[in-house]
Structure formats: C-alpha cells, structure tokens
C-alpha cells in the first residue's frame, strides 16, 4: 500500500489486480509478445522458471511540462547571473572612480 501512495515499485500482480494494460500499439504489441515468448523459451531451456520484466513509463505530457519548467528555471538563473554581473560591474566602476578621485 505504501508503494502505491509514494509511486514506488509495484509487482506484476498489481497490474492484474488493478486491471491495468500496457498500450503499445498493434505493431509493437506483436514485437513485444514475440520477444516475451522468445525470452520465456530461452529461460525455460536453461531450466529457469522465474522471469522479471522491467518496464519504463514515458509520459509525453510530463516531458513537455519538464521542458517548460526547465526553460523557466534556466531563464531565472540567467537573470540572476545578469544581476550578479551587473552588480560586479557597478562595484568595479565605483572602485575605479574612487581610485581616480583619490
């Protein structure tokens, strides 16, 4: 239950319990099924009965949001850097002016 709330790693049975499916499209579905069958046959030939599948989820909407947030953060940092540079330049000019007057 804790993993569900925190977005942690779940088990294959959770997919069945939650009635979840992977949507990969018809062309990739066939490739995916074929590869799983080949893997299972290979592991069976080695007398290995346990099979784990690691699945990564790619969220396109999140990628766009991440890019927007990154651009905003980058713009903010550039602004901060400009402020620091501007303050440094003013301090240097003031120091040079006082050296010329002093």
Structure notes:
The chain has 102 residues and is mainly alpha-helical. The model has no long low-confidence stretch (mean pLDDT 78). Helix content is 72%, strand content 0%.
Counting H and I runs of at least 4 residues, what is the number of helices?
Answer: 4
Q: DSSP strand (E) fraction?
A: under 5%
Summarize model confidence as the mean pLDDT.
78
Radius of gyration over C-alpha positions, nearest whole angstrom: 28 Å
Short structural summary:
Helix content is about 70%, strand content about 0%. The chain is mainly alpha-helical and about 100 residues long.
Q: Top keywords for this entry?
A:
mainly alpha, 102 residues, single chain, rod-shaped, 4 helices
